[in-house]
């Protein structure tokens, strides 16, 4: 949700009376929430929704590792598998598909993480990393946003993982709705700018 500040600023300018509610839902509940108009959109890596919703691909996201800068870190931009396995990790246990798929993909390659801390979202990750030697695996764009102060080292993962497709989903019934169409366009413009960062 790193794009949320830009979206809020655009809404404040263009439609200050529009209310925005960000609601995490289990993936299995999203299609019904879209159909019943409880949600207008779902954004994220949600491949199970692709055959059942209208959708638009924003970008494909890679994952990286991030930890605080310190003297005992390896040089370069890649962590060796042994270093990755020896580290203690922060795990983000989001409702979003891609964060579950991350551990599934690692396990499929025989790679397990030593989880020292499990969190429900990424908001506390920078403060935790700044105070510890823990390693976090997170979306690459988010890692660079969180590292604006240059306090962290970012490494490529030591195992290849498939990219996560970040998409926006909406229900067919509301495809031509004027308000939904306008908002879909605004979100698309914000995410298009976000992909360039």
3D structure, described in words:
The protein has 197 residues and is an alpha/beta fold. The protein has 2 domains: 33-61 and 164-197, 3-Layer(aba) Sandwich (D-Maltodextrin-Binding Protein, domain 2); 63-156, 3-Layer(aba) Sandwich (D-Maltodextrin-Binding Protein, domain 2), CATH 3.40.190. The protein has helices at 4-14, 27-35, 81-86, 97-108, 125-131, 140-146, 178-194, and strands spanning 42-44, 54-61, 63-68, 88-92, 114-119, 135-139, 152-156, 164-170. The strands form 2 sheets. Strands 5-4-6-3-7 form a 5-stranded mixed sheet. It has a 3-stranded antiparallel sheet with strand order 1-8-2. Strand 4, helix 4 (97-108) and strand 5 form a beta-alpha-beta unit.
